Amino acid sequence: MAQRNMSWRDERAAAYSRSALNEGDTLVILHPDSYKPLDPAGFKLNRTLRVHSENLLRTGSCSFERFLSPRAQRRIRKIHGYETQLPAGIKYIIDLNPSNMNEDDAIDLVSKLSCSRGIRHWFTTETRCDIHPSLVGGRDATTVSASNSAAKLLMEAAEAKKKEEEEADSSANILKGFKKQSPPPANIREAYEWSNSQNLTQSNYEYREFPICKVEEVADYCPWRHRNGIEALLQCIEGKEPKIDSAPQVWTLAILAQYFDCRRVVVDKIVTWIAQGLDGFFVEVLPEASFHMGACLQSNWITRDAFGILVSEAALRHGSSISPPIFKQNTSQETRFLRALDDVDEMEAVFCWKIVNAGMSFYNRVNSIWESLIDQHTPWFYNLPEFAKINRLRERTAATRFSVVDEAVISKFESSLRDYARGRIAQCLVQNLDCEQARQANTNRKMQAYLYPYVDQFENTYGDLTPQERIMTRFLWEHVAALEWNPDNDTHPILDRF
């Protein structure tokens, strides 16, 4: 364990040194004066960050254009004591310290940066799915609870605003925390009000031992992760490679890229991170979070795949509503296929409405195809090449004196063939999973289960599905595609003569 910790520390330190922001004409203020930034591995991070103003403007970000405007520069220089003279080589100063945001912006941003349950649990894929720790093994620097962290940032924002109004010289201390006098509320605005009623003490920030063992160790919001995400975004803008080794960091980077209006510089890195961790598996397990990230980044690749999964599940739910199953699990927590539902608070109502409507449309389309296959008149049957042979047989016998008898026999033969085809297809609806289907389904469920181990057998889950639900599964259509109409001959021997 100690050797692994040292290797992990050295890897992070080397990656950070390669991506260090030490050059440029723009000074970035990210940390309070009294804060000494440290990486979770224990080495010091740069307090002073420098970037190139042309790189910031090249992103096309309205935010950076505003930060670099003459009016904003006069204000920021006055606040930070650079009104008369700038440091050597510096032309611009921008303040990206989250503590200096106004209260309303801080509340909005903290709520967006708060990670969902699935994002916080993603570290478990290292052992459950054998995903490399360089992708999911990263951790935050603090064990302070999420509610305290959110309240702390908002409290700092209020103090910064007050300091600016009073033109005070002291700055807020990011390492202040709260006594555990009463459980903090979950609502962010209430957390801010609650923080003002508490006595401040020195922070209980700690550094954890690798690896993360409990999801409680991963805060839904973390000030360190927030600041680290801003630095990673600047590294991307500078053309460097930031160390991104956890789902919460990826989520934070995506939200910050949207907030600062520079999605283009990070979208390829986030897509690469998703693809490297079992291609598409992240989107498959967490389609809600993936869809939101894809919408933030305006990435067709992420959004398309996540939207397809959500629409398929919506179609399955629509089938369940038509004919409710006898044994039904708690659908507010998981899907019919036992995928744990992630938090969807951040999914705008318009997207939810589109997903539901697309799911209904998809179900109606698939259902119409199924009904056409088992329709009593089987219109598709007459378009088969083999049916042309029956017509040629009918034409040949029409000229004989036994044509009436032959026509009755042929019609009976035709009806029997239709009923046989319909029966074989309809039988797939009650067919159980084969061994390979069951094995793959159970393997997938075990890999996807991040809340608790999957101990059930998927054959039982499939057996509980109603016919309206089964037509929305790939297993039914695999059974239909695998039907063997005549295993010994390609066509019927009698019809081959015609």
Q: What descriptive keywords fit this protein?
A:
498 residues, mainly alpha, 3-stranded mixed β-sheet, two-stranded antiparallel ribbon, elongated
Q: Care to describe what's here?
A:
With 498 residues, the protein is mostly helical. It is built from 23 helices and five strands. The protein has helices at 2-18, 53-58, 62-67, 70-79, 103-113, 117-121, 125-128, 133-136, 146-166, 188-196, 223-237, 247-259, 264-276, 281-285, 287-297, 300-322, 349-373, 385-397, 403-427, 435-448, 458-463, 467-470, 474-481; strands spanning 26-29, 49-51, 92-95, 176-178, 200-202. The strands form two sheets. It has a three-stranded mixed beta sheet. A two-stranded antiparallel sheet has the order 4-5. Helix 11 (223-237) crosses helix 12 (247-259), helix 12 (247-259) runs parallel beside helix 15 (287-297) and helix 15 packs across helix 16 (300-322). It starts with a helix and ends in a 17-residue tail after the last helix.
